[in-house]
Specification:
single chain, mainly alpha
Length: 91
């Protein structure tokens, strides 16, 4: 479970919903092919995460410019701290 939270750190709620849907579709396809029922495992969710990307990345890259050029009043200080914590991911 900890791995799921680590790898889904920048995922929005809608992104997580998509990950669950991708994993579910994969398992249903496997069940239809093999005829053997099985639950969705954590590995299925982790595989789905590796095949998707968080939709928040583009927004975070955009807000980076607001922080850089329009933060005179300190309105974006919290965002600036968040961005500095995730520098490696955002580039």
């Amino acid at each position: 479970m900890i791995a799921f939270f680590y790898f889904s750190k920048l995922y929005s709620g809608a992104d997580i919903d998509n990950v669950v849907e991708v994993a579910t579709e994969k398992v249903i396809h496997e069940i239809m092919s093999s005829g053997k029922e099985r639950p969705i495992f954590m590995k299925d969710l982790l595989d789905a995460i590796t095949s998707t990307k968080p939709s928040t990345l583009e927004w975070l890259r955009t807000i980076k410019n607001y922080v850089k050029y329009a933060n005179q009043a300190g309105l974006y200080d919290d965002v600036e701290r968040y961005l500095s914590q995730h520098k490696k991911v955002l580039g």
